[in-house]
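Write out this protein's structure.
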Amino acid sequence: MDIKRLIVSDEVSNRVSYGRGNPKNYLTIHQTGNTDAGSNAKAHHNLQARGGVGYGWHWQVDDEIAIQTHDHDFKIWNAGDGRGVGNTQSISIEICVNSDGDYNQAVENGAKLAALILKEENIDISKMVQPNYWTGKNCPEQIRACKNGICWSNFVEKVRGYLNGNTQEIKENKEE
């Protein structure tokens, strides 16, 4: 999996956040819910880079690549809990579910990315949560429904495996 950190300007991030100062105590795992062909990580990054949809997320990941849009220091409106802990103390990942992508590989890459972020930011895996934790929203919907046999407990175990194992196949590419 390639990783690109295509951080947008503070001006763009400020439109979908409570500004800087995120203590980074949690990692919130979302799924886009967007099954349209072409709705991959690059498309979701481009959406955010153009000003977004009134809320945001730090990362998007698909079956090939993970792209960071917002600096982790921003308190991005991702969890739906207003000025609650989800929006103000969480880093967020959106796993793409586009119909022309490989769903299982996107979830696997999401687990790899989650492990990388947990390590980089020194967040305990017990603080990796679903948006459901913050608001009761049915998200990540496909994981919550155990699509293709991948339930939340399976996802957590995948992340735990990457935390305890090797993530050498993750290649960071800083160029677009």
